[in-house]
Specification:
248 residues, mainly alpha, elongated
Length: 248
């Protein structure tokens, strides 16, 4: 990443996080309160479109500042999806991918810090967002099974954990797309947790091995010093009245 792109990223990191949070608040308000007045609904729609414009400007700016634009395009397809899918209401929540990126950066470079951020913050946000999206897609559909937020949250939990009781299921195409995305997210989450636990065990085993090697090294050094002390104390001392001393 060149200096101009890095400067842009640092300057827009906090505003994009605020925009993502505002988007989430506006979207959640629209979904959770179906009787929202026209004025407040228009305000929520305004916030949604403003946040979309901010993400579009950010993507275009980073694309123009990228040294290798073809590589940038390939590596940031998800960012393009954030910009290119504004008209599919459940998929508008893809804009919150930017919030996950910010959380990853705030977690630092520590593996445990990143995992803790993704598992705790990421899982909570994914469940809440998926529940909103499926409720928005399904609530007014004919023969809909998911018509309340509690049903939507329950469905999101069992789908993310790959349990899938089958008591609730989406009947609309947008709802099924949300389900596919949530299934992939659930598999990715379980894979992340499993890989992290495996990495932690390997790290712990490595630490114990290093400690054992250090203990053996210290023990070997103590044995060597003890041998030298025994050898030196066991040497016969030279008599004080030798012929050499008398001549001197």
């Amino acid at each position: 990443m060149n200096r101009a792109a890095e400067n842009w990223r640092r300057r827009t990191e906090a505003p994009l996080m605020v925009a993502a949070l505002l988007f989430l608040a506006a979207y959640a308000w629209r979904v959770l309160d179906p009787n929202l007045s026209t004025g407040w609904r228009q305000l929520c729609d305004f916030i949604l479109w403003v946040t979309w414009a901010l993400f579009a400007i950010d993507y275009l700016a980073r694309f123009m500042l990228a040294g290798d634009r073809s590589r940038f395009f390939v590596r940031h397809v998800h960012d393009l999806a954030v910009v290119a899918l504004p008209l599919l209401r459940p998929l508008r929540l893809l804009r919150l991918v930017a919030l996950l990126g910010v959380l990853n950066q705030l977690a630092g470079r520590s593996l445990r810090g990143r995992v803790a951020t993704y598992v705790v913050g990421g899982t909570t946000m994914i469940l809440f967002v998926a529940a909103l999206a499926i409720l928005d897609a399904e609530r007014n559909a004919p023969n809909a099974q998911i018509t309340t937020f509690s049903d939507a949250l329950w469905w999101a939990i069992v789908t993310t954990t790959t349990v899938g009781y089958g008591d609730l299921a989406p009947v609309t195409t947008p709802g099924k797309l949300v389900a596919v995305g949530l299934m992939v997210a659930g598999i990715a989450l379980l894979g992340t947790v499993t890989a992290t636990l495996a990495s932690w065990f390997v790290e712990r085993i490595g630490d114990e091995r290093r400690h054992t090697q250090d203990d053996f090294a210290r023990l070997a050094e103590e044995v060597r010093q003890l041998r030298e002390q025994i050898a030196s104390s066991g040497r016969p001392s030279r008599p004080s009245g030798t012929a050499t001393d008398q001549i001197g």
